[in-house]
Design brief:
alpha+beta; 20-stranded antiparallel sheet; 15-stranded antiparallel sheet; 18 helices; 19% helix; 39% strand; disordered N terminus
Length: 1229
């Protein structure tokens, strides 16, 4: 993801780009305030409501304290409305405080019936997930607290929720140097909230009950959801590794509090293995929170009604990714003490308008930090531009070096194969050519087996090249005891012309198999295990090399790790078939299944730096949800599986077979075929008949059908092996003379007199070689019972006229070299099923195509496995897998002809083509052609034809052409009649041509210097018509008088009568029109033509608009811009194939201050006209384009607080963005 794109796409620069100062105030005078009398003192009564959630804590004792000289003093007597307070079953409580204004602490303690729900998915020691913990017996000394303020500013009511996070905050507040006060509450609360990426007040936000599927599914505040997940994550951390719940929470929380206070609020990132006892670590909490998100998602998905809430499921998936990303970023950027620095948020002093203004200033500052090409804050924005460039250059580097990672994956697979061979004891030597194991073209070098290592591994070294890449890696392969896991420890480097990738200690790849490798299965080659998943964890340095084009090379140092999973995807193999006979080619496609390796989870964490000294710390986490169960979509067009075109049924003896075609097959092709096989007296002797009956004889091209017969016989060849006679005949119902017979005689030859076959002579005769007419009413008139072809008078046809080939090595070789001579090898056929399998392979060429009305051409493809099934003659009936390979696209082209015939407009889904003729007289007109593709540059081609008196019997034809795409190119062509014998008559023609990009004011073609260009002349034929029909001269201009004639001639001569186009998501579409179809074009009429899809838009179907991978990602960045420390976290989830929703959390430290400011931006790409921003002080800015037709210039509003008090309108004034506050003040953004 590019930082600049992230910001601009969220409109911080482009939408809010009209930047100015905050001193552009309204000139409206401020009225003199009217003095108000001093109010009479009133008794302050505050109702405090809240919930105790760690999970839900019921029947807990609630005690409220005030602070006197920084000491907590219990409120008693008249200070409280009720001094005996307990939480309800849902954890809620209410207490009324009388006549007190200031800081309070709400503390929960354990009573005799206090319970707490375990919200840790792994359970709470011996208490299961979602079960209650009886605290009176399990942890009676547990207390939880929260600190807040009450008073007149609260309007008589305040929320004080109690959680693990408020308890940690309370400890920090009470330990603060300045004592317990409003400032320390805000500061310490923001430290804890920021540590866990929560926006808002920890006491006012109500953490979601993440152990309750209904509560999660109904949650609409994602900060409260994250709060609930973190709350559960703390529970998981507290009970991790514990078997008994007794006193765990109280003792572990006390340890966490002491550690946090001792380190000034700095959280430990990972537990220190050298420290005994409990340590609360950020990584453990985030991992537990991620488990809670996963558990909640599973619970919702299991409830059909709740599962309809796909938005919350997507949010839970996104939270898992965000939590993983935060953990990785923290681990990569922890300080020397293993902790993250505590950061407090800078509060805004003042009322709602003051808070709104402060957020506007935050937005303005971020716009300036990264705004490219402006003078505002030029020093800082210039530095921001440098960092934007660094991100872009880093992306280019990683993309350019993707081949290195591909090569590494290939090498890992090769080492796995060699390791398996070593395990089996079948490793053939110690040095292996690498190109025997890599699919990459041009790979050269060796893999060397070095030794067995002390821990049972196998050490290999790789020294190879692939293109510009040089590989020097040592790899230790270790096969796990279970035989299902292979781990490869990696060390070394891959160097290309552009960069060097270095793998350091700790890098490894792991491949997981679905079944165990055994020595036996490897030795006898029966191992059929498949890779089920894999892992890759690389500690790398990727360093770009300085070149003439790379002046500021980029370097990445850090960790790359991913979990990989293979997925099968429908795909199309593509071949281009060239026809030597007519010098034309066409593409053919065949469905197949390919395996792609996808990252279930990918993390990249480290630092990007440039030679100029810029540094960005970055962590990218991306995940694909439910990858294991993901099913790739079928193709929609070419490659789509459709209803089987036929079924095949077999008799028990495999000798009677019926092929019944579907009613989907069009009437001109639909048949039912019955095949009967009769074995002979010996192997190689048999006969077979095929009766094909047309379903619609009046429409079928075979009429009533076709009958076929094959007879094979053996004969004495004079040596040990007998000869073979193969004869076939057919009679079709299409016409009286539609028949034929062919006889192939295969004679074994002994060239060295050892009575054994050395080669074969093969001769072929055909009824077509008899010039007399046959009766052909039955097979007996064409062939006899011994397979001899008969002459038209009924005699055996002599073979002296046969076509003969000598010295053939085998019958199978002859069949390979000579298509359609033998349908099957007579010697290898024993029944009808085997004959059908060979017929499919040799006659059908492993595929059969038919046409479905209104759908297109469909094809069944036969694999070797399919042929083996057919040859075995399965019981019952089999249906043939059938695929749409040439889809019909209805109404693909519309051809509109104007009433005056001058203009023809051809439209399709993406292009409009206009052809116009402005006619003057024969040979004198303008042919104007425009091609207007949707969203692309228009092509404008104008050809002006004119006649010039040549003084002969035929005029000279001139054509001046201007062709404009991005620029204009000119050509001038003359067809000149030549009289060689001076008789005044044309004897031949010459063609004069000139071309240029330039033209002068007189209409002459000139070169760049204004000089006339050279005219090239050539002989162009003896006939006038020889000069036309090419691209430049598409028709004889003397035959053109209107647009229809020009268009049909142009289409026929230039495009071969083909209409074609390309349609996104569909592919290439074309149809060739017949002369009769072209003749249907008429003045004032619209003619529609169907067409076929001939090349697909995609050749693999991993995703489409309806079925796509559920991807979400999170990117964390940290850098220094000027005096500002900037932190960004961009998270996004996919909502459609090309759509998504994004959240951008922006945070910066103020210059010379320990505190920071932050806000968040939210948008969906399918709602690009709307964007929201908010911060922890309750400010919400909503930007939205006005409805179409609206005259209002208001494009947004700003509201503040839980009551959504509107404090400003955002107006677009001629491109300038103005904030108009409710008190009359105005400023630009």
């Amino acid at each position: 993801m590019k930082l600049q794109k992230s910001l601009i796409s969220l409109a911080l620069i482009s939408v809010l780009g009209a930047c100015g100062g905050s001193d552009n105030k309204s000139s409206t005078p401020t009225p003199t305030p009217t003095p108000t009398p001093t109010p009479t003192p009133t008794l302050i009564t505050t109702t405090v409501d809240g919930k105790a959630i760690k999970g839900t804590i019921a029947n807990a004792i609630v005690t409220v304290y005030k602070y006197v000289d920084n000491e907590a003093v219990k409120l008693v007597g008249e200070e409280l409305d009720n001094t005996s307070i307990e939480t309800e079953a849902d954890g809620s409580y209410t207490v009324t405080i009388k006549d007190y204004e200031g800081v309070i602490k709400v503390e929960l303690s354990v009573g005799p019936d206090t319970t707490m729900i375990c919200d840790a998915p792994a359970g709470c020691a011996d208490v299961e997930f979602r079960a209650p913990i009886a605290l009176a017996t399990v942890d009676p000394t547990l207390t939880l607290s929260a600190i807040s303020t009450v008073g007149s500013a609260n309007d008589g009511a305040v929320n004080v929720n109690v959680s693990a996070l408020t308890h940690l905050t309370s400890a920090l507040v009470e330990a603060a140097e300045g004592g317990v006060n409003t400032e320390s509450i805000q500061q310490q609360s923001s430290i804890i909230a920021n540590a866990f990426n929560i926006t808002g007040s920890l006491t006012e936000l109500e953490p979601t009950l993440v152990d309750n599927a209904n509560a999660v599914a109904s949650e609409d505040n994602f900060n409260e959801l994250r709060y609930g997940l973190i709350n559960a994550g703390i529970m998981s951390a507290l009970f991790s590794g514990q078997n008994n719940a007794s006193n765990i929470m109280s003792t572990s929380l006390a340890s966490a509090v002491n550690d946090l206070v001792a380190n000034g609020g700095a959280l430990l990132v990972n537990q220190d293995e050298n420290v005994d006892g409990f340590e609360l670590s950020l990584a453990d909490v985030l991992n537990g929170a991620s488990e809670a998100a996963n558990a909640a998602a599973e619970a919702i998905a299991a409830d059909p009604e709740l599962a309809e809430n796909t938005e919350i499921l997507a949010q839970l998936d996104q939270e898992e990714t965000n939590l993983e990303n935060q953990s990785e970023f923290a681990q990569a950027n922890a300080g020397d003490n293993g902790r993250i620095d505590p950061v407090a948020e800078q509060p805004t002093e003042g009322d709602a308008i003051a808070k709104a203004k402060a957020m506007v200033e935050d937005v303005r500052l971020f716009s300036h930090l990264f705004e490219v090409g402006t003078d505002s804050n030029s020093a800082i924005s210039g530095e921001g531009e440098a960092y934007v460039a660094l991100i872009e250059e880093a992306g280019v580097m990683v993309e350019a070096e993707a081949a290195s990672f591909l090569l590494l994956a290939e090498i890992a697979d090769a080492i796995t194969q060699l390791s398996a061979m070593h395990e089996a004891g079948t490793l053939p030597g110690t040095v292996f050519s690498i190109n025997d194991y890599l699919s990459l073209e041009g790979a050269e070098g060796t893999i060397t087996f070095d030794e067995e290592t002390a821990n049972g591994g196998i050490l290999f070294s790789v020294n190879a090249t692939s293109g510009t890449e040089i590989v020097k890696i040592s790899i230790e392969a270790i096969i796990d005891e279970n035989g299902k896991d292979v781990t490869l420890d990696l060390n070394g480097a891959i160097e290309s012309a552009g960069a060097k990738l270095t793998l350091t200690d700790g890098s490894f790849a792991k491949i997981n198999l679905d079944s165990a490798i055994s020595r036996t299965s490897l030795e006898d080659d029966t191992f059929e295990g498949e890779i089920t998943s894999g892992e890759l964890e690389l500690s790398v340095t990727l360093e770009q090399k300085a070149t003439a084009n790379v002046t500021n090379p980029v370097k990445f140092s850090g960790l790359v790790k991913t979990k990989l999973m293979p997925k099968t995807v429908p795909a199309l193999s593509v071949e281009y078939d060239w026809n030597e006979n007519n010098n034309t080619g066409e593409y053919s496609f065949q469905p197949e299944v390919e395996t792609v390796i996808l990252p279930e989870m990918l993390t990249l964490s480290g630092g990007f730096s440039s030679a100029e000294g810029n540094l960005i710390k970055a962590t990218l986490t991306a995940s694909i949800q439910d990858l294991e169960s993901y099913q790739s979509p079928d193709f929609k067009y070419i490659g789509k599986q459709v209803e089987s075109f036929a079924t095949i049924s077999f008799s028990d003896d495999k000798n009677t077979i019926v092929i019944t075609e579907s009613d989907m097959v069009n009437n001109e092709q639909q048949t039912t075929e019955t095949r009967v096989f009769t074995p002979g007296s010996q192997a190689g002797e048999w006969s077979a008949t095929s009766s094909v009956v047309s379903a619609f004889p009046e429409e079928h091209y075979w009429g009533t059908g076709i009958e076929r017969k094959i007879i094979t016989k053996r004969f004495d060849s004079g040596i040990a092996e007998q000869g073979t006679l193969y004869t076939r005949a057919y009679i079709s119902g299409a016409s009286e003379n539609n028949f034929g017979a062919k006889s192939v005689r295969v004679t074994p030859k002994d060239h060295n007199s050892d009575n054994l076959t050395d080669s074969y002579d093969i001769d072929i005769i055909d009824t077509n070689w008899d010039d007399k007419e046959y009766d052909a009413t039955s097979f007996s008139t064409l062939i006899d019972a011994d397979g001899n072809i008969l002459t038209s008078d009924g005699n055996i046809h002599p073979r002296d006229t046969a076509w003969t080939t000598w010295g053939v090595s085998s019958i199978d070789q002859f069949m390979m070299d000579n298509d359609y001579q033998l349908i099957a090898n007579p010697l290898t056929v024993n029944n009808g099923a085997e004959l059908l399998a060979q017929t499919i392979a040799n006659w059908w060429k492993n595929q059969r195509s038919v046409t479905y009305d209104d759908i297109g051409q469909v094809t069944t493809f036969f694999s070797e496995e399919d042929l083996a099934v057919i040859a075995n003659g399965p019981e019952g009936e089999i249906a043939l897998d059938t695929y749409l390979m040439k889809p019909l696209l209805k109404d693909a082209f519309n051809v509109d002809v104007s009433a005056d015939s001058k203009t023809v407009v051809v439209t399709d889904a993406t292009v409009t083509r206009t052809f116009n003729v402005d006619y003057t007289s024969p040979g004198n007109f303008v042919f104007d052609r425009k091609v207007s593709p949707e969203g692309q540059t228009e092509v404008h081609d104008i050809r002006t034809f004119s006649t010039v008196d040549s003084g002969l019997d035929i005029d000279e034809i001139n054509m001046f052409r201007s062709n404009t795409i991005d620029s204009t190119y000119y050509s001038f062509i003359r067809i000149i009649p030549i009289d060689t014998n001076e008789d005044g008559l044309t004897d031949h023609f010459e063609r004069a041509e000139s071309y240029s990009e330039y033209i002068n004011t007189d209409g002459m073609l000139v070169d760049v210097n204004g000089e006339p260009v050279t005219e090239y002349r050539s002989h162009s034929g003896e006939s006038f018509e020889d000069n036309f029909g090419s691209f430049h001269m598409p028709f004889n201009p003397l035959t053109i008088s209107n647009g229809i004639e020009a268009y049909t001639n142009w289409l026929t001569n230039v495009r071969g009568s083909m209409l074609y186009t390309g349609i996104a998501d569909i592919g290439s579409v074309e149809v060739t029109l017949s002369e009769a179809e072209l003749n249907t074009l008429a003045p004032g009429e619209t003619t529609t033509f169907d067409a076929y899809i001939t090349y697909p838009a995609i050749t693999d179907s991993l995703e489409n608009n309806d079925v796509f991978l559920d991807v979400n990602a999170a990117l964390s960045l940290e850098t220094i811009l000027g005096d500002y420390q900037v932190n960004l976290m961009l998270s996004g989830e996919r909502t459609a194939l090309s759509e998504g929703k994004f959240d951008l959390n922006m945070q910066y430290k103020l210059p010379d201050e320990a505190t920071m400011r932050k806000f968040s931006v939210h948008m969906k790409t399918d709602e690009a006209s709307r964007m929201t921003m908010n911060n922890s002080e309750g400010v919400l800015m909503v930007l939205k384009e006005p409805e179409e037709g609206s005259t209002s210039n208001v494009i947004g509003t700003i509201v503040v607080g839980a009551a959504a008090e509107k404090v400003a309108d955002i107006e677009d004034r001629d491109g300038g963005i103005f904030i108009v506050y409710s008190n009359g003040e105005v400023e630009t953004l």
